[in-house]
From TrEMBL, chain A:
<dbReference type="InterPro" id="IPR029069">
    <property type="entry name" value="HotDog_dom_sf"/>
</dbReference>
<dbReference type="Pfam" id="PF13622">
    <property type="entry name" value="4HBT_3"/>
</dbReference>
<keyword id="KW-0472">Membrane</keyword>
<dbReference type="InterPro" id="IPR049449">
    <property type="entry name" value="TesB_ACOT8-like_N"/>
</dbReference>
<feature type="domain" description="Acyl-CoA thioesterase-like N-terminal HotDog">
    <location>
        <begin position="63"/>
        <end position="162"/>
    </location>
</feature>
<protein>
    <submittedName>
        <fullName>Thioesterase</fullName>
    </submittedName>
</protein>
<feature type="transmembrane region" description="Helical">
    <location>
        <begin position="62"/>
        <end position="85"/>
    </location>
</feature>
<keyword id="KW-0812">Transmembrane</keyword>
<keyword id="KW-1133">Transmembrane helix</keyword>
Automatic annotation (TrEMBL), chain B:
<dbReference type="InterPro" id="IPR003736">
    <property type="entry name" value="PAAI_dom"/>
</dbReference>
<dbReference type="Pfam" id="PF03061">
    <property type="entry name" value="4HBT"/>
</dbReference>
<dbReference type="InterPro" id="IPR006683">
    <property type="entry name" value="Thioestr_dom"/>
</dbReference>
<protein>
    <recommendedName>
        <fullName>Thioesterase domain-containing protein</fullName>
    </recommendedName>
</protein>
<feature type="domain" description="Thioesterase">
    <location>
        <begin position="51"/>
        <end position="125"/>
    </location>
</feature>
<dbReference type="GO" id="GO:0061522">
    <property type="term" value="F:1,4-dihydroxy-2-naphthoyl-CoA thioesterase activity"/>
</dbReference>
<keyword id="KW-0378">Hydrolase</keyword>
<dbReference type="GO" id="GO:0005829">
    <property type="term" value="C:cytosol"/>
</dbReference>
<dbReference type="InterPro" id="IPR029069">
    <property type="entry name" value="HotDog_dom_sf"/>
</dbReference>
Length: 169, 140
């Protein structure tokens, strides 16, 4: 029985990276904060490189609490969208040419969002990862955590609910 | 707060680097209450198809306004930091309209300040988002 040869690795990488790039670069606010995403297989890590305009209290100085919340929210919503779209990206149902032309499918909407500030956000780069704890047909629950120098010492975490896009369009 | 203190607080908040990046302006502040406006800005769009502002920018506005309400409370020692903030998003803000947050520090202890906040666009009868937050109280 002839088995189909596996896809060349560069084809897989190009497809996934192009899909992720389309998802992230289409949103002006993500660029405004300077957030980027690092991908390892299907795992995403949000990166928030330090910038002076992210500072809230210049006396400490510390990253603005609103920036921290926004970074967690962006990481949560991109990770949720990514896991939701993953199968369609892999199967080719989602056309790369559409994504690259900015024709994105409807994305989840935030219903509520709760942030715990665990430590002061220091004036340096920050990282975040989100975990989709439940993804249903209509609602999803997501948890995200952000850290700086030391992964074991998170400086903020959040839990959030999202309204999923209707799959009937 | 007397007029000088209010002016000092207003200038301090508007000069915070991230508040300046968002273009925030303080409309009212004093006695544990604050009102801050965030003008519509295409850089803050979360949904490029509709031009709706990203929820994260609304969070930053709510957080700033909550902190401003706390520092303006007569029993506050000065600075503050957010402990926890929960936001409910009721609807998308109308593209092109500024968003105004109104926050009240309704209770304060020696250690913790409790805040409620609402964000509205031009349609002030239907809030865009509501928030509850807890903030640290510095010993004055």
């Amino acid at each position: 029985m002839a088995r189909r040869p596996p896809e060349p690795v560069q084809v897989i990488k190009q497809r996934r990276d192009a899909a992720l790039n389309a998802l992230v670069s289409g949103v002006p606010y993500i660029s405004f904060l300077g957030i980027r995403f690092d991908r390892r297989g299907d795992e995403l890590t949000g990166l928030l490189p330090y910038d002076d305009k992210l500072i809230g209290n210049p006396l400490l100085p510390a990253i603005h609490g609103g920036v921290t919340a926004a970074f967690l929210e962006v990481t949560a919503i991109i990770t949720l969208s990514w896991s939701w779209l993953w199968e369609d990206i892999e199967s080719g149902k989602l056309k790369l040419s559409d994504l690259e032309a900015g024709r994105l499918p409807r994305l989840p909407k935030t219903i509520d969002f709760s942030t715990d500030y665990l430590r002061t956000g220091l004036p340096r780069d920050a990282y975040a990862r989100a975990r989709v704890t439940r993804s249903g047909r209509r609602y999803a629950s997501v948890h995200a955590q952000a850290w700086q120098d030391n992964h074991d010492r998170p400086f903020a975490e959040c839990s959030a609910h999202f309204l999923m896009p209707r799959s009937d369009g | 707060m007397d007029a000088d203190q209010i002016e000092t607080a207003r200038q301090f908040i508007e000069a915070l680097p991230h508040a300046a990046a968002l273009g925030l302006s303080v409309v009212q502040i004093g006695d544990g209450m604050a009102e801050i406006v965030m003008p519509y800005n295409p850089c803050l769009i979360g949904d490029p198809d509709t031009g709706v502002i990203h929820g994260g920018a609304v969070s930053a506005l709510m957080d700033t306004c909550g902190g401003a309400a706390v520092v303006s409370h007569p029993l506050s020692g000065g600075g503050t930091a957010t402990i926890g903030l929960r936001i409910d998003y009721m609807r998308a803000a109308t593209p092109g309209q500024s968003i105004t947050a109104h926050a009240v520090c309704h209770h304060i202890t020696r250690s913790v300040a409790f805040v409620r906040a609402t964000a509205t666009d031009d349609d002030t009868d239907r809030p865009v988002a509501t928030a509850t937050g807890t903030f640290t109280v510095e010993q004055g």
